[in-house]
């Protein structure tokens, strides 16, 4: 296995674990507790509207760029200036599309102001993602990891100042949106400086012929991102617009928070894998070892979180929230089951994308989007956020099943039965431990510590992850690239 990949994944995941856990379970949670479920539900719905139109901001350029630069690193200097101008043009188009749609869906002036601020923040974030894609493709995983948490670090600082009353300013959703825009802008500037430093001499130039060539190649990636955004974010939007009470969207957001925290770690990990897969496929090198190791790492942690939410959902909801505790706990206990099929989908999808089979991924995403939207429209009016949680699990199971079947037919995996048995032993150990611990009258924080201890022991006992091998890799001074 490549030392850069393992080290890059470890550093990225650990850094994001610290920063984004502090953000999601600390500051963001504090904001929702201060403004209330209804107000936060309105914000959550507006935020997801901006996500649905992110395709206009990128048109698949970022995913195409990672694969392209990973395989042809000499193109960075040539492409950086032109694509920076193109990203700015797409940002203007994005705002021109977003605001009229926002007005049609909700012509409240406060909502439109928040939507505009969030839209500008997304524009800056899109620039940052493009700049990060260059660093990622060149295996500059340290820079990429730091930039992946920079905006959250700044938000933690600014929001904490407000929430702790250091400044005599009260937190509301409008201020929250303004702070997101400011921190996104600062992060974009840092990412731009890092890119221009790596690339050297770069000329900003407007070149329609070049843009046409890039967009033609990136269009399949754009279709994939668009469809995946629809079936992963449409549930929150539908909850707001199919129900009169915006608190259901707030309950779903609360239940979704723990999964979202985990999902970001999984995305960071596959962000490291994607350029590795792209370069390995180009040079005909095997990816089986890294692929299997990544699946085992992510799926074991997904099982841990799923079992935790199954046995301790009420305690976690009481610890984190102060409104709609039973409803939030019920959604949380179901929604975390998404974790297991989700990690299978994104690791498999990362390899399939690197292999250039975008059309197949688009077809799978279309199927999942259709299922998700139709089922949500049918069941949200009668069952609200609880229905959306079940539908999210079903959608991800369908996606994971199809993608893993596709991968299994193309990669020659060995010892799969052995690993399935070991994972099953891990799950049995966690279920047994969770059953015993949940029947004790312990504080939830002690429950979490005991479950984490059990998880580490189970990993060592089942040898799902070979820690001796990881130590050898980290000590090695040899890199493949």
Please give the count of helices. 17
Query: What's the total number of strands?
Result: 0
Q: What is the beta-strand fraction? A: under 5%
Radius of gyration, in Å, reads 22 Å
- Give the helices and strands as they follow along the chain: HHHHHHHHHHHHHHHHH
Show unreliable segments: 477-481
Structural class: mainly alpha
Instruction: Classify the helix fraction into a percent range.
Output: over 70%
The major beta sheet can be summarized as:
none
Mean pLDDT: 82
Short description:
This protein has about 475 residues and is mainly alpha-helical. Helix content is about 85%, strand content about 0%. The chain has one domain.
Write the layout of secondary structure elements.
Blueprint: H1 3-35, H2 37-52, H3 54-58, H4 61-71, H5 76-105, H6 109-137, H7 141-163, H8 173-199, H9 208-242, H10 247-282, H11 288-320, H12 325-335, H13 339-354, H14 358-408, H15 416-438, H16 444-462, H17 467-475
Helix pairs in contact: 1-2, 1-7, 1-10, 2-6, 2-9, 2-10, 4-6, 4-9, 4-10, 5-6, 6-7, 6-8, 7-8, 9-10, 9-14, 10-11, 10-12, 10-13, 10-14, 11-12, 11-13, 11-15, 11-16, 12-14, 13-14, 15-16
